[in-house]
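Entry 12.
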Amino acid sequence: MSTLFIADLHLSEQHPKITETFFSFLDSHTTNIDALYILGDLFEVWIGDDEHTPLMDLVADKLSQYSKQHHIPIYYIHGNRDFMIGKKYANQSSMQLLPEHYVVTLYGQKVLLMHGDTLCLADKNYQKMRKVIHNPILQTIFNLLPLHFRKKIGWKIRTASQSKKVHKKNNIMGVTQDEVERLLLFHRCHTLIHGHTHQVAEHQFKISGESFKRYDVGDWFHNYSYLEVTEQSCQLHISKVD
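Predicted 3D structure (tokens):
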């Protein structure tokens, strides 16, 4: 039996091959699977559960079918692109929403799960923006705006974010090690699994002589990656997008 972790697919109508690869991934992982965890940014942008596009409905139908037919629970942690996904879409997709920091016991070991954007403290501009857009009052006001207006705002934010990302260095885009260690010690976990940075890798380090691990599950663009956890091992898999 195994548990699967993916993140940062950034599904959109502009990249149908990624959606096809995702569906093929689901079709090929239907047996001996305890659960599927999606650690954020399933979609490139999310305006609200009241928006309905063919892609959104197609993905929801596929996930729901995958979960119900194969009795595989799907868990979701919001990303920085789709933090507005609500209970309505989660129910449509047969996903269970989790808090931004979540501790799960996997085969006897406590593991900390998160999207990963709160680990990148060197990206000070993003952290400032995050505090604003995650304000519950502002989110309520945003949801009251007409859908077409919200779509314009969402894509403007997305375009600005993409433009700035090109000029950011890896040390800014990457995680802050002190924050990684702080959260692991706070939650009393020796393993952290996350996404967001698109830097797929396994990291091993020590804190006061004790061994810890951090897994970045990577993004789905030129390659796709996922983490497979069993009772015996944690293994990152990387393949080309079809």
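Annotation: The CA atoms of residues 121 and 172 lie 8 Å apart. The helical segments are 16-27, 54-70, 87-93, 124-133, 136-144, 147-167, 170-173, 177-187.
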